[in-house]
Structure formats: structure tokens, C-alpha cells
């Protein structure tokens, strides 16, 4: 066996893991920190991808359009998330399990709306020219686009953790999560905190959507393929644990890639799912956990 | 909460039985009777979901798995019955020389097939439930895990095209345990079996809800820790409910096959599993009739509204999830009680029983 | 505990009564072996009523769910063909009245709606379907009720039914011409990439048989589930296998992911070209410039210069909800409606038996946008010209190869000695 036969799945898998991480990052906020199970997260990802397409219709120079699309997708998907929080989710904090079903309904509506608004076959999102080409790593020609996905995930993780740790808003979020009543008594507006957390979580889905639009099709069905894997990653990583989510996403991505290399693409999906399910049976609290009782 | 009188529920089941077994065959056309049979299959699975989710608080998002066990066991038997001595046609295509896969062989036997429809879900749900509940996996984790299982199974079936028929599924069954399926009289028989099984399932949960076990199950849903301190193991209570609900899903799946004439992975995957939940939520998860009636209503909506206004149906289904869960967490069957309560004590809002329990689950 | 067991007994008794009631009825039904007996498996009498001034036809396409992305256009073009026929006076002087049903990308729904169209709406014929799975779900139902189903998409062949007319290509009209084209290009190493379902699996089984005959080595074969877009792992395997050409049987949006991963990995049309059988003018725009220069094998392209094509394109562009481009499955759907009109007018009746008898004359033709097509009355497929096109920058196809004459349909590949006779026999036995 060539060395590139071993290295290729590792690198490809890392990129797949990075995309999973981007999809899961927002969930680790809304699910991990707020306990909301947003099944429409995949559709927010789709909104991000369509936002990238619309940006490309305005900014024709493809070299610039993707950097511009990233913040736009973040904002647009975030606003959709905010709208969802204000209209529906905020009435449901007392019964988080039911948010799962409500957001299934939201997802259905968003999917059908996208099918009717945009060309049914989907729209193209063009990759910028500076992402053409490969990087030779130990004999394997690694696509630059994959490196971009990994860098994007790294930037999002860094920004998110810095924001949570070092800004006063991040401190307010953590305070609210740990003790809502105490936070409120200390003068923190938990309503604002909830809204901003949900805005950020949904916005991150939008960023993931831009990355996904460079990998697959941009159409009404695209979100559906990410939602369950993303939830599994958050669960396997341990609730509210950023580092757990990162490791879990990477592990799933790499496992998926090696499985695909050794077996078939379909079987790889099945094996990766079973791997995570078995892992969660053995360690239901996930990789990391601070509070043993945080298990939902 | 006042308990409804038991005879009231029982006579309700009686009326339902007369409607399904006697009135429906007389007034409905063959096509709509067959559709009603299909809704009955979903309703059987829904009764089980009502037990596990409504009474037990376990959001079973992967009932498609158990639906599949029953459905594929039945479909494999009917396929072999139709093929006779030959290898089923779809298998020839991918490898003409290979023999029938090993796991198909026992399904030639009618007795083994019926046993498998009952035992396979019991074994799998028992194993899965034991592992999950003993480790106290619940709430959203349980929901996502079961849903992931449904997705994994659907993908597995899709990718094993020679062994299971893949995405196309199994179809074109000519016989049902020796009876010609094309004959309208036999179609009626199949419908009646499905309807009778639905009634049996309703009777079974009616009995369970009245029993000590039913009370323990609700207690486990509302305050698991307290049940534990009282000396019961909540895991066992949940396990029984989960296994029974799996068995019902399997029975529903098994009857779905001769009625609809086809089974595919799409009927068991994420979307199908969620659709099963939709009916239960609409009808009222914790009530006796709610899940069955809700499932039938969703099935009917799909057949009729889906015809006249397909795009609209998707929106309606989406809105149904939102409106019902948001404003009517106990489903349509809670409406009469709500009106009554509102008339008696206009100022007081009836507190939803479910909310408290789930709050505890996530925040505890 | 005794009360419980008594209750259980009541419960069991009630259940038993219901089941017995059901089984008692079984006495009336036919058992295996008496299919020929009266009341057995003979199809129910047709309820089609054409005595008025209209004829009812059913359209069955997925308007929701994953396949809606492809099938909506077929539905629209069927409506257009019906409107055209109505403007020209209808079929046998009767205006078409259509009933549109949604298959919802769910094969049991296709079966249910077929039954509804035939027994509730009493339509004279049904048009639609896209995936092979949807057709296989419709087949038993349309045979049971002795209806007619017109299927407009290229497929894997090895099928025929007295109740189905196939207006898309069978394998010897699309896949075999594509393989001949590859052999003529001097291709020695071929990689097969497909979605994981019946069409790619069967098509690739046939491709492998023919490749052995042509001396083309199959250097790899990869499948990805229909609903998955990510092809990066599989493309890495393609890069390692170093094929001369890739035969692509991927369907739907997964194609976009495939093309992107291919391009990311540095593969290009110049070095490792792709020949596709599911990418047409409709699909190409969603893939952007990255698909430019790749090949596709179809019978119809929008760029074909035939007498009737300009009118077809013009009518479609004017039609409400038009996507603006025409494609092979759309054109095959358009053919199916006109073919039905020709069949009925030759038969002088909407009756299924008479329509099938008219087909048997082998004289039913239509001047289609792809050229003149003739219906084969025995296998219910139509003759078609073979074309290979190359995608240009405007997402149109430049024709690079055309068959000398129209290719007669041969769904069971009887004219090809490399196709094993025993497989053919087993398949026809299993079907019969």
C-alpha cells in the first residue's frame, strides 16, 4: 500500500470533520448551552448556502464573493434564528424536548419554501479561483478547498471560544447557563442573552452553509443530510463542551473517510453512525463532562 | 386530574371496533378501504408511541427501525412465496449465480416469519433499551440516538441492494400466506386483520394504563428519581414500555406490507419516523385514542390534501407540528377537557403535565 | 392478580373474535393455485368513461420531497403537451382533462396514487414517474388494474410490461452507445461512479459485461447514497486508480458534490473526462463552470437541429413556470403524450386492449424533437437516435457524436451476445 493510501483518508477525513464541526458548532451553543433541540438547524445551514449564492449574484468577482458571503450568511441565518427564538422558542424553554418537534415543522416549511423560491434543481455557488489547486502532502495531492474548510472551522472555534471566555457578553451567557435565576438577580437580562446565543448559534449554521455550498449542491434538500450527524457529534463530544465537540467531529470525519476507503460510501455512513451510537451507549455523557448531572 | 371512568374508554374502543370492522367495509370503496388499512398500520405503531412517549416520556424518534423489522420480515416471506423455487427476480440482476442470502432462508416458513415479527423487535428493543435506560440515557439524547438508528438502518438497507432490494424496496407480492392478494375478498381479509390488530393494541394499552404498571410508568415520566427512591427500578419500567411500543411498531410494519404492497427504506428512515410522531402529537400523546386517531388523521391528510394541494400539504404538516406542540401539547384530545376546565374555572389555566417532567429531565 | 388475568382473558377473547371474523372471510377469497378461477386474479372492470366530450388522464410526478427537483419540470411539460393537444382539438375530438397527483418522492405513495388514479379518478392513462424505484412501485398496480402507464426517463432496461410504455432510452440506446464512444476514443481504463440504487447498479453490471468484450478495464466502482453530496473520499480513490475516463451514473444533487470533489482534486475534462447519463441541460447550471467540457449520452439535446425541435423549445420558453431550457427526460415526457394520442387515434378507442393492439402494428410514429421515433409494439419501447454531447460554457451541449441511424429498442439485450442468456432467461422468468 502506498503511503498516500493511508494519508489521503486522514486528510480528507479531517476536512469532512471540519465541516461537521462547523455544522455542530452552532448546535453546541443552542443545544449545549440552552437545551434547545433545533432540528431546523440544517435548514439554517441551507439558508447560509443560498445567501452565498445571492452574494455571488451581486459580487461577480468570485475571488471576493466568498469572503463577503461568510459574514452575510452568518447574519442572514442568525436573523432567521432570532426570528425563530422570538416567535416560538422563547415560549418553550420550560419543555425543551418539545422544541425538537416544533423545529421539525419549521424545517419542513423552510425546505418547501426554498424549493418554490429557487430553481428546483438548485443553484451554483462558484468556488473562488484561489481555492483551485492542491497541496502535496507526502505524495497525496490534497485539495486546497479542504484546507480552507479546516481553516474556516478553526477560525470559528477560536472566535467563539474567545467570545465566550473573554467578553462580558460571553460571561453573561455562561452565567445564565449555569444559574439562570442567580444571573437574573445579578441584573443580567437573560432574555437578551437567550436571543443573542440563538442568533450566534444559527449564524454559525449559516457559515457552515457557505462551506457546504463549496462541497455539494445548494438546494432545498441540502440541510437534511447534516442535521443528525451534527447532533450525534454534539452528543458524543459531551454537552456544552467545545473541545469535546471538536474531537468528536474530527474523529467521526476521519472514521467516515477510512470506512469509505476500506468499504463503500454507503456502508461507511452506516458504520460511522453505529460507531457513535455504540460509543454513546458506553459513555452516555460524551467525551468530556464538567457536571456529571448535565446529562439531559 | 380526574380519572376517566374505565367503562367509558372500553365502550369507546367498542364503538371504534364497530366503525372499523363493520361500518368501514360497507361504506368505503376498495381504494379508500385499503388506504384506511394503511392508516391502521400507522395507528398501531402510534399506539405504541403513545405508550412510550405520552405515558413514559421517552421520545421514540426511531420507531421506523421496529416498523422495518416487522415489515421486512413479512416482505421477505411474501417475496419468497411469490418467487416459489426461484431466486427473487431483483437478486438475479446483481449476481445471477449467487444463492439466496442465508438470512432469507428461514423466512420461507410462515411460522418462523410470524415468530420473527414478534421476537425480533422484542429482542432488539430489549437489548437497546437495557443498555440505554440502565445508563440513564433519556430526553433529547434518547430521541437523537433512536433517530440515528433509523437513519443508519435505512442507509444500510439502501446500500445492500442484492440482499434487501435497496432503495427500490420489496414489492409485487402475489400471495399472502397462500391467499391471492389480487382478490378483493382477500384484500378485505387483510384489512380486517389490520383493523382487528389495532383494536387489540388499543385494548392492551387500555389494560396497561389501568394497571399498576401504567401508574408506575407515568410516575417514572414525571419524577424518575422519586420512583427510584420508592424502591423501583425506573429502567425496568421504561424497558417494558419501550419493548411493547417496539412490538406494536413491528406489527404495524408487518401488516403495512400486504396492504400497501411495497416496503422501502423511505418508510422507515428519519422522515417516516418523525411522521409517525406527528400523528401522536396531533391526537394527544398521553391519551388512549389520541395517538391512533392522530396517526389516521395524518395519513388521511397525506392521501387527500396531498393530492389536491401537494405543496400546501407540506406547509400544513409543518404548521401542524408548530401549532399543536406550541399551543396544544396534549393534542386535540385535550380540547374537550380544556373547554370544560375553562368553563368551570375561567381564571385558572390547566398546567400541562408534561412540561414539568421534561424541565426536570434537562435541567436536573 | 386474578382480576388482572380475567381482564387479560377478556382482552384475548375480544382480539380473537376480531381475528376470527377476518379469517372467516378468507373462505371466500382465492387461494394460491386458483388464479384462473372466476373472481380470482382477473383485473377489475375498467371504470374509464370517455362517452363525454373529455378524456381524463393522470399525471404522477413528485412535486414534493427530494425528487421534486427533477420531476416538477416533467409535470410542467406534460401540462404543456396536453394544452397543445387540446388547442389542436384534443384526442379523438375529446379534450384532455388532467388529474395531477404528487408522488412525494415516496414509492408506496406512487403505488397508492396509481391505484387512486385508476380506480377513483378513472383515468384512461397515467404519465410520469422518474426513478426506477417509482416505476417498479407503479408496475404491479397498473398491471393489476389493467391501466396504462407512460414512463419518460432513460432507465436500466431488462423490463417490459403490457401496461407500460417506455419513452426514455433503454440501455442499448444510451449506455451501449456511450461505451462504443469510449472505445472509439481509445479508452482503456474506466472508473464507474454511481448513486446507490437500482439504475446505477444495473447499468454498471451491464457496463462491466460490455467492457470485458471491448477490452476496457474497469479500474474501480464507487457508490454513494442518493441523499449524500460528499464525494471527497471516493474521488481520492479515483485519483489513485488513474482511469482514462469516468462513467457517471450518479443521480440528482449528489452530482454537484461529485463534480466539485473531482475538480477540487485537480481532475479536469482534459485529463480524466466524465461521461454522464443523468446530467442534462436542466442539471448542468447547478454545477457552475466546473462541469464545462464533460460529456453526456442522451437521445435528445436542446442543441439538436431537427425540424420540430425549434417549435418545442419556443413553446416551452413561453410556457408558464418554464425553466427556459429543454432536456431529454422532458422531451421524452412530451413524446409520451403525443405517442398516446397517436396510439388512441390509430386504435379509434381509449380501450387498453385496443390501444395495445394498435401498438402491435409497429406503425405508430411521432416526429419528435429528437427526430422521428417509432413504437415497437412488442416491447413497448421506442426507437431513438443516439447522441453524445459535450457541455459548453453556456451549459448547452455541443454534439460530438451521433448514431448513423435510429437505434431500435432492445430492453433485454437480445441482440448482444456478450449478455449472458441465462441471466436474461432468469429475469424474464422472474418477471413472467
Could you give a short description of this structure?
Helices cover about 70% and strands about 5% of the residues of chain A. Chain A is mostly helical.
Strands in their spatial order, largest beta sheet of chain A = 1-2
From the 3D structure, determine the CATH topology of chain A: ABC transporter involved in vitamin B12 uptake, BtuC
Principal-axis shape of chain A equals globular
Q: How would the global form of chain B be characterised? A: globular
Radius of gyration of chain A: 19 Å
Q: Please work out how many helical segments of chain A DSSP would assign.
A: 11
Total domain units of chain A: 1
Keywords (chain C): Signal
InterPro entries (chain C): ABC_urea-bd_UrtA, Peripla_BP_I
Signal peptide (chain C): 1-32
Organism (chain C): Actinoplanes utahensis
Describe this structure in words.
The complex is a heterotrimer of chains A (296), B (364) and C (432). By secondary structure, chain A is mainly alpha-helical. Chain A contains 11 helices and 2 strands. In chain A, strands 1-2 form a two-stranded antiparallel sheet. Chain B is mainly α and 364 residues long. In chain B, helix 8 packs across helix 9 and helix 8 packs antiparallel against helix 11. The C terminus of chain B is likely disordered. With 432 residues, chain C is α/β, with parallel strands linked by helices. Chain C is built from 12 helices and 14 strands. In chain C, the strands form 3 sheets. A 7-stranded mixed β-sheet of chain C has the order 7-6-8-9-10-13-14, with helices on both faces. In chain C, strands 2-1-3-4-5 form a 5-stranded parallel β-sheet, with helices on both faces. Chains in contact: A-B, A-C, B-C. At the B-C interface, helix 2, helix 4, helix 6, strand 3 and helix 8 of B face helix 1, helix 3, helix 4, helix 6 and helix 12 of C.
Amino acid at each position: 500500500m502506498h503511503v498516500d493510501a493511508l494519508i489521503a483518508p486522514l486528510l480528507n477525513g479531517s476536512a469532512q470533520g471540519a465541516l461537521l464541526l462547523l455544522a455542530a458548532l452552532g448546535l453546541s451553543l443552542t443545544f449545549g448551552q440552552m437545551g434547545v433541540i433545533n432540528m431546523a438547524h440544517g435548514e439554517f445551514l441551507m439558508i447560509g448556502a443560498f445567501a452565498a449564492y445571492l452574494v455571488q449574484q451581486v459580487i461577480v468577482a468570485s475571488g471576493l464573493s466568498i469572503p463577503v458571503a461568510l459574514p452575510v450568511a452568518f447574519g442572514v441565518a442568525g436573523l432567521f434564528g432570532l426570528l425563530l427564538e422570538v416567535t416560538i422558542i422563547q415560549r418553550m424553554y420550560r419543555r425543551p424536548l418539545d422544541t425538537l418537534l416544533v423545529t421539525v415543522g419549521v424545517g419542513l416549511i423552510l425546505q418547501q419554501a426554498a424549493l418554490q423560491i429557487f430553481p428546483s434543481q438548485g443553484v451554483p455557488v462558484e468556488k473562488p479561483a484561489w481555492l483551485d489547486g492542491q497541496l502535496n502532502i507526502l505524495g497525496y495531492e490534497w485539495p486546497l478547498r479542504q484546507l480552507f474548510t479546516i481553516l474556516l472551522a478553526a477560525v470559528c472555534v477560536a472566535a467563539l471560544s474567545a467570545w465566550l471566555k473573554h467578553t462580558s457578553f460571553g460571561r453573561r451567557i455562561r452565567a445564565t447557563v449555569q444559574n439562570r435565576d442567580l444571573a437574573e438577580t445579578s441584573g443580567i437580562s437573560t432574555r437578551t442573552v437567550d436571543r443573542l446565543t440563538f442568533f450566534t448559534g444559527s449564524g454559525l449554521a449559516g457559515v457552515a452553509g457557505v462551506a457546504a455550498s463549496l462541497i455539494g449542491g445548494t438546494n432545498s434538500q441540502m440541510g437534511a443530510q447534516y442535521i443528525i450527524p451534527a447532533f450525534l457529534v454534539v452528543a458524543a463530544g459531551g454537552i456544552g463542551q467545545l473541545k469535546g465537540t471538536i474531537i468528536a467531529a474530527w474523529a467521526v470525519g476521519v472514521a467516515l473517510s477510512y470506512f469509505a476507503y476500506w468499504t463503500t460510501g454507503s456502508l461507511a455512513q452506516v458504520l460511522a453512525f453505529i460507531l457513535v451510537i455504540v460509543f454513546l451507549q458506553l459513555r452516555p455523557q460524551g467525551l468530556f463532562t464538567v457536571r456529571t448531572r448535565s446529562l439531559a | 386530574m380526574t380519572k376517566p371512568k374505565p367503562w367509558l374508554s372500553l365502550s369507546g374502543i367498542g364503538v371504534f371496533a364497530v366503525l372499523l370492522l363493520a361500518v368501514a367495509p360497507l361504506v368505503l370503496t376498495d381504494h379508500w378501504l385499503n388506504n384506511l388499512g394503511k392508516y391502521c398500520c400507522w395507528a398501531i405503531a402510534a399506539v405504541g408511541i403513545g405508550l412510550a412517549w405520552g405515558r413514559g416520556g421517552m421520545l421514540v424518534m426511531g420507531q421506523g427501525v421496529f416498523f422495518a423489522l416487522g415489515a421486512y420480515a413479512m416482505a421477505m416471506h411474501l417475496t419468497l412465496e411469490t418467487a416459489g423455487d426461484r431466486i427473487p427476480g431483483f437478486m438475479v440482476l446483481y449476481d445471477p449465480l449467487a444463492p439466496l442470502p442465508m438470512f432469507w432462508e428461514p423466512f420461507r416458513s410462515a411460522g418462523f416469519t410470524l415468530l420473527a415479527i414478534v421476537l425480533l423487535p422484542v429482542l432488539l428493543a430489549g437489548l437497546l433499551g437495557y443498555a440505554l435506560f440502565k445508563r440513564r440515557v433519556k430526553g433529547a439524547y434518547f430521541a437523537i440516538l433512536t433517530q440515528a438508528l433509523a437513519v443508519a438502518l435505512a442507509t444500510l438497507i439502501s446500500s445492500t441492494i442484492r440482499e434487501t432490494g435497496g432503495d427500490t424496496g420489496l414489492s409485487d407480492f402475489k400471495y399472502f400466506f397462500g391467499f391471492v392478494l389480487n382478490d378483493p375478498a382477500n384484500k378485505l381479509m387483510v384489512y380486517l386483520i389490520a383493523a382487528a390488530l389495532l383494536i387489540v393494541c388499543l385494548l392492551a394499552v387500555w389494560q396497561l394504563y389501568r394497571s399498576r404498571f401504567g401508574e408506575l410508568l407515568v410516575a417514572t415520566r414525571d419524577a424518575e428519581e422519586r420512583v427510584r427512591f420508592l424502591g423501583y427500578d425506573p429502567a425496568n419500567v421504561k424497558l417494558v414500555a419501550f419493548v411493547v411500543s417496539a412490538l406494536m411498531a413491528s406489527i404495524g410494519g408487518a401488516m403495512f406490507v400486504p396492504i400497501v404492497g411495497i416496503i422501502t427504506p423511505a418508510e422507515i428512515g428519519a422522515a417516516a419516523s418523525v411522521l409517525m410522531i406527528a400523528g401522536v402529537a396531533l391526537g394527544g400523546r398521553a391519551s388512549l385514542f389520541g395517538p391512533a386517531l392522530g396517526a389516521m388523521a395524518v395519513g388521511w391528510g397525506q392521501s387527500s390534501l396531498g393530492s389536491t394541494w401537494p405543496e400546501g400539504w407540506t406547509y400544513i404538516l409543518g404548521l401542524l407540528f408548530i401549532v399543536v406542540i406550541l399551543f396544544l401539547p396534549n393534542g386535540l384530545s385535550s380540547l374537550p377537557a380544556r373547554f370544560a376546565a375553562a368553563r368551570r374555572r375561567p381564571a385558572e389555566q390547566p398546567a400541562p403535565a408534561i412540561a414539568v417532567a421534561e424541565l426536570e429531565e434537562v435541567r436536573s | 392478580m386474578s382480576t388482572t388475568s380475567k381482564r387479560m382473558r377478556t382482552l384475548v377473547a375480544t382480539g380473537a373474535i376480531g381475528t376470527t371474523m377476518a379469517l372467516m372471510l378468507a373462505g371466500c377469497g382465492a387461494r394460491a393455485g386458483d388464479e384462473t378461477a372466476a373472481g380470482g386474479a382477473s383485473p377489475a372492470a375498467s371504470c374509464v368513461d370517455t362517452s363525454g366530450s373529455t378524456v381524463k388522464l393522470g399525471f404522477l410526478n413528485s412535486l414534493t420531497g427530494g425528487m421534486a427537483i427533477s420531476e416538477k419540470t416533467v409535470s410542467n411539460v406534460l401540462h404543456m403537451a396536453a394544452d397543445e393537444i387540446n388547442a389542436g382539438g384534443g384526442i379523438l375530438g375529446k379534450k384532455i382533462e388532467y388529474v395531477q397527483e404528487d408522488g412525494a418522492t415516496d414509492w408506496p405513495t406512487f403505488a397508492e396514487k396509481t391505484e387512486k388514479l385508476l380506480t377513483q379518478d378513472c383515468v384512461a392513462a397515467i404519465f410520469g414517474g422518474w426513478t426506477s424505484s417509482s416505476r417498479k412501485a407503479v408496475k404491479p398496480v397498473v398491471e393489476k388494474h389493467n391501466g396504462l402507464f407512460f414512463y419518460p426517463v432513460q432507465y436500466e432496461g431488462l423490463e417490459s410490461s403490457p401496461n407500460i410504455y417506455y419513452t426514455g432510452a433503454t440501455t442499448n440506446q444510451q449506455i451501449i452507445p456511450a461505451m462504443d464512444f469510449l472505445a472509439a476514443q481509445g479508452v482503456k481504463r474506466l472508473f464507474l461512479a454511481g448513486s446507490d440504487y437500482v439504475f446505477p447498479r444495473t447499468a454498471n453490471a451491464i457496463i462491466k459485461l460490455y467492457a470485458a468484450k471491448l477490452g476496457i478495464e474497469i479500474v474501480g466502482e464507487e457508490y454513494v447514497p442518493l441523499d449524500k453530496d460528499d464525494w471527497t473520499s471516493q474521488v481520492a480513490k479515483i485519483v489513485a486508480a488513474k482511469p482514462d475516463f469516468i462513467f457517471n451514473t450518479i443521480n440528482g444533487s449528489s452530482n454537484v458534490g461529485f463534480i466539485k470533489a473531482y475538480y477540487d482534486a485537480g481532475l479536469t475534462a482534459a485529463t480524466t473526462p466524465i461521461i454522464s447519463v443523468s446530467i442534462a441541460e436542466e442539471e448542468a447550471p447547478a454545477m457552475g463552470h466546473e462541469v464545462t467540457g464533460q460529456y453526456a449520452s442522451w437521445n435528445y439535446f436542446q442543441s439538436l437541429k431537427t425540424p420540430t425541435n425549434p417549435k418545442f423549445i419556443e413553446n416551452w420558453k413561453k410556457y408558464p413556470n418554464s425553466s427556459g431550457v429543454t432536456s431529454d427526460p422532458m422531451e421524452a415526457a412530451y413524446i409520451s403524450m403525443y405517442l398516446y394520442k397517436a396510439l388512441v387515434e390509430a386504435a379509434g378507442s381509449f380501450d387498453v386492449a385496443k390501444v395495445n393492439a394498435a401498438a402491435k402494428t409497429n406503425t405508430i410514429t411521432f416526429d419528435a424533437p429528437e427526430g422521428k421515433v417509432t413504437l415497437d409494439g412488442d416491447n413497448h419501447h421506442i426507437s431513438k437516435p443516439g447522441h453524445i454531447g459535450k457541455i459548453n460554457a453556456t451549459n448547452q451541449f455541443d454534439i460530438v457524436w451521433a448514431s448513423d441511424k435510429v437505434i431500435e429498442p432492445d430492453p433485454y439485450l437480445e441482440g448482444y451476445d456478450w449478455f449472458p442468456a441465462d441471466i436474461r432467461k432468469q429475469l424474464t422468468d422472474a418477471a413472467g
